[in-house]
Amino acid sequence: MPELPEVEVVRRGLARWVVGRGVAEAEVLHERAVRRHAAGAADAVLRMTGADVADAARRGKYLWLPLHREHRVAEALVVHLGMSGQLLVEEPAAPEEKHLRARWRFTDGGHELRFVDQRTFGGIAVVPLVPAPDGGAGGAGEHPDAEWARTLPAPVAHIARDPLDPAFDDDAFALRLRRRATGLKRALLDQTLVSGVGNIYADEALWRAGLHYARRTASLTRAQVADVLAGLREVMTAALAAGGTSFDSLYVNVNGASGYFERSLAVYGRAGGPCRRCEEPVRRDAFMNRSSFTCPRCQPVPRNAHW
DNA sequence: GAAAGGGCCTGGGGGC
DNA sequence: TGCCCCCAGGCCCTTT
To answer: Of A15, A120, A190, A251, which has the fewest Cβ atoms less than 10 A away?
Structure first.
């Protein structure tokens, strides 16, 4: 499942293969893939065709390509990969993927960009860029000094910075986290508090911090919040490094958890297996319509848990 | 308006 | 072989 590291790997692929090129033709093959584009597929196609791709930017799990048109960068193509979305850079003659949802051909006649999404939980939209409430995308694009670097796509404006963002404010995060009346993992999955964290890296970071997912956020010490942030940064940085090996590939891969990084996971998907620290069998709980993996010894259930 | 949390989207795979 | 149910998890949307 694409979380921050996987999405950043894709962003880097786009920066290399797509930025600076002109869109000759855009094609939407599945209506559901553009459901977040209010004006419909035809309008989305119209807004992409003839534009130049100015940059490849990211905040949390959202990716976007600011579009240059008539001397302005006022809109962006936003992509969310959802659970199963992939962006592929392919030879125009390459056979169509079974779940191909959208395609872009470029004026140079070179490699095309494809959006493939088995479950269509992801999607694309062309949306206006608005001034960023917190001062910009934080270096997530290739052109931090450009006018558009201080903007965000409208549907992304409410998303918080991620823990790897140099402008992420640890103290402000700790303050907001401890004011919440909720459980720790619920809070970590709230993209308005901290972005880029999904089920997998939340579990991995909590294991590193030795904290249970149902721990009440209000009861956390400053040191424990620091441990959680350190855990998130550690696991995300390692995953990003592992994904880096695919940068040179034409295939802009997003199979992070099921592929190269899977071996490094300490608890996620390892129910019944030995904890890598204490050998206690890893436990799987149903939680928030999904699974949570913990080590019962390293991450004991807290008193006054918030489930 | 903010916060909290339930529910939904889809297709593959396993079990019967 | 075929049908049905379960599962994945991010975020939309309702409720408070």
So the answer is: A251
The answer to the question of residue A276 being in a domain is: yes
Domain that includes residue A129, residue range: 4-156
pLDDT score, position A144: 85
Q: How confident is the model at residue A208 (pLDDT cuts 50, 70, 90)?
A: very high
Residues A20 and A122 grouped into a single domain: yes
Q: Predicted confidence band at A260 (pLDDT cuts at 50, 70, 90)?
A: low
The answer to whether A118 CB sits below 7 Å from nucleic acid chain C is no
Give the residue from A154, A1, A144 showing the smallest Cα distance to A64: A154
Lowest mean pLDDT of A32-41, A145-154, A262-271, name the range: A262-271
Cα separation, A176 vs A205, in Å, equals 19
Tokens found for residue A215 = 């721990």
A180 is in an annotated binding site: yes
Domain CATH for A191? 1.10.8.50
Q: Are residues A149 and A23 in the same domain?
A: yes
CATH code, domain carrying A147: 3.20.190.10
Tell if A193 CB is < 7 Å from nucleic strand C.
no
Q: Name the nucleotide with the smallest C1'–CA separation from A82.
A: C10
Residue with tokens 């579009």: A67
Catalytic residues of A: 2-3, 61, 290
Q: How far apart are CA A216 and CA A305, in angstroms?
A: 6
Q: Are A163 and A233 in contact (CB under 8 A)?
A: yes
Q: Which nucleotide is nearest to A118 (CA to C1')?
A: B11
Exposure b/e, A5-17, CB count within 10 A at least 16 = b:
bbbbbbbbbbbeb
- Same domain, yes or no, for A29 and A133? yes
In a domain, A246, yes or no: yes
